[in-house]
Amino acid sequence: MNIKILTPEYVVFEGEVNSVLLPGKNGEFHIMKNHAGIVSSLIGGKVKLFTNSVDEAFAKNLTKENDKDSIFSYSIKSGVVEFNHNKGIILCE
């Protein structure tokens, strides 16, 4: 599935991921391939991307969670996510 993370200043990440873990108002929630369409607000926390690789252009924006697994994170203050048909856009600050 394709995920794009945008801030008002720049594109943080754009690419294929296996799944994404997001900080929601009522707790973290996981979006996986073929997830039902969703629009949700996000609170401060970490957006975690589960992916096999990250393009070098975006790697500088992300933190690798550990050496064993391919989990990358990006800290946000707030935001909104829209996901539909295996494409998601995360607008955040």
From TrEMBL:
Keyword tags: ATP synthesis, CF(1), Ion transport, Membrane, Transport
ATP synthase F1 complex delta/epsilon subunit N-terminal domain ranges (all copies): 1-56
GO cellular component: endomembrane system; proton-transporting ATP synthase complex
Keyword match Ion transport: yes
Gene3D superfamilies documented for this protein: F0F1 ATP synthase delta/epsilon subunit, N-terminal (2.60.15.10)
InterPro entries named in the record: ATP_synth_F1_dsu/esu (IPR001469), ATP_synth_F1_dsu/esu_N (IPR020546), ATPsynth_dsu/esu_N (IPR036771)
Classification via CDD domains: F1-ATPase_delta
Mode of membrane association: Peripheral membrane protein
Pfam families: ATP-synt_DE_N
Location relative to the cell: Endomembrane system
Domain of life: Bacteria
Record-level Gene Ontology MF annotations: proton-transporting ATP synthase activity, rotational mechanism
Entry similarity comment: Belongs to the ATPase epsilon chain family.
Role of this protein: Produces ATP from ADP in the presence of a proton gradient across the membrane.
Annotated protein name in UniProt: F0F1 ATP synthase subunit epsilon
